[in-house]
TrEMBL record, chains A, B:
UniProt KW keywords: Oxidoreductase
Any one GO MF annotation of this record: oxidoreductase activity
InterPro entries named among the record's database cross-references: Mal/L-sulf/L-lact_DH-like_ah, Mal/L-sulf/L-lact_DH-like_NADP, Mal/L-sulfo/L-lacto_DH-like_sf, Malate/L-lactate_DH-like
Keyword Oxidoreductase belongs to the record: yes
Protein name (record): Ldh family oxidoreductase
The family this protein is said to belong to: Belongs to the LDH2/MDH2 oxidoreductase family.
Source organism superkingdom: Bacteria
Amino acid sequence: MEHIFSYHHLREFTREVFIHMGCSLEHAALASEVLVSADLRGIDSHGIARLSGYVRLWEAKRINPRPNIRIIHETPSTAVVDGDAGLGLVVAPYAMEIAMQKAAAVGTGWVSVKNSNHFGIAGYHAMKALEQDMIGMAMTNASPLVAPTFSTERMLGTNPIAVAIPAKEQPAFVADFATTTAANGKLEILQRKNEEAPYGWIQDKNGNPSKNPHELKDGGALLPLGGDREHGSHKGYCLGAIVDIFSAVLSGANYGPWAPPFVSFLPLSPNPVGEGLGHFFGAMRVDAFRPADEFKSNMDTWISRFRNAEAIPGKKVLIPGDPEREMHQERLENGIPVIAPVVKDMKEVAAKFNLNF
Amino acid sequence: MEHIFSYHHLREFTREVFIHMGCSLEHAALASEVLVSADLRGIDSHGIARLSGYVRLWEAKRINPRPNIRIIHETPSTAVVDGDAGLGLVVAPYAMEIAMQKAAAVGTGWVSVKNSNHFGIAGYHAMKALEQDMIGMAMTNASPLVAPTFSTERMLGTNPIAVAIPAKEQPAFVADFATTTAANGKLEILQRKNEEAPYGWIQDKNGNPSKNPHELKDGGALLPLGGDREHGSHKGYCLGAIVDIFSAVLSGANYGPWAPPFVSFLPLSPNPVGEGLGHFFGAMRVDAFRPADEFKSNMDTWISRFRNAEAIPGKKVLIPGDPEREMHQERLENGIPVIAPVVKDMKEVAAKFNLNF
């Protein structure tokens, strides 16, 4: 059972909710655009499905609707931003904009952020750079759900990495992926359907391979990309660790197992090692390396060569970003399906703020 | 059957070989240090085992022993370096040094390199940054051996990524990994032993899973980290693609399936899309984000917290770089074992240049 909403309906509803949380009109408009971009791109776990979670974090006073977001340290190519406990959905665009300004001035810009919250999909922020012929990067740490290789403890988040690279005639290359075998959102789908997960996605509390999608409730963990040692899980662990360190140790946010949980019913660490959640953004001007037109023509060649690679019968080789771009078009035209439990959450939020639904 | 050599013996032999190839004394000393650092760290596939391959590339006139390595474009935080077909073992340190100089000046430095050759282990170059309290990064594209998700064609190299992050009392965090399930060197070990590979490492020429370590000779391919789509191979493909684009499209080197093969018996592409092989280096001054001492203390906490994470009985959670650092100590003290086929190659090289062995 699902309900189909238009993009504009979802975005307007979200905007109203953020306004009722006390956000400025400008912040509410931006935050709703960022949040619902996840639904448009088909990353349902990071869009409207999170809205009630943000409201609960705000009720728990873990989100400041009127943050004083500011640079606390900088050099010509770097900055650290304090998000003042604001919505990651507005802190991240602020920080990405600084990265791009620095890239415009000195070739590249790199911004580490502390004291923030969940920022939606990493891809949205990385793609901002495309408008200015820049390569964009975005990453974030997140609630600890992932066990490093050989660990039975959850030490890292699903810590996504997004990289957006402009092309000329071809659509841009947009990679946006969790550094785990499977994103938590995929596990949530199996939980709802009560279906088994493949081996390599999760382990139980003792570190044994498990197919039970509910394992995380019993002390189990998601696994780093690779799944197990023999298949390179130490590499997925490295990636998740690098994202954690760039996002949270460079900025002074909470890192590793201290990263604050997204769900408001879990307590914050009594001994935080930093402030809030951390992100990391990068922008590299293409013409800081070679003429943008030359680079983008080469990217066209790269993309068409890979798209036309010989493939397994019935399959084709995709370019990172292809599925999400097609979904964006499809959902913009035909609407966004929202599953019943999320519609129920939306109704509760609407009732709380006395909004039309 | 293997022979044990001292580090100094291997390094001196390698230095002599590079001198006889016509390298300057300075370049020969540097190249031998970089090459044999792989053996010290236990990455046997990238060290002395490659020496005869370099000699054959030089004989095929694909390596220029007296390169005019130079910056061809730059901004305050970026540069593109033309390696003039030199040994990657000397081109890469030159480029990494520029990245560090730029980081010293404006906070970060990013250098893309074209017209180079195999550069040894990525970790060596990334670790250079540690000496100056910088985070170091190094990556390179390589001979196409890897099939993207759903492809039956080999389109990418094993394209490694190295990231080195300084700590205070703790040893540095040093990640250095191929973006495939297993590095080619691991496959070579199975080939020599005639042992099967686990599923998820390789596919046959039709894209079917295979355990045959000799599959690459019959048109098979290595698989991106993740192994198959269900286990996230599209993420490993993204990583390999990003390394390829940063290293080769940003610089103007050959990218994707056009990357030149390391082995001299395979022909170069008749229609190259760039010059030589490409690399990418980055350096970020830690104090461009926050005081270095604060950062490094936090890294100590990060490292000790992860090292002491609850583990599967009989196992412990490692920090990236731990195994290589221990190997380095062990081999510096007790010597470096070299397998018989490599010793045979060394003897042939010695005979060619009339060197003592």
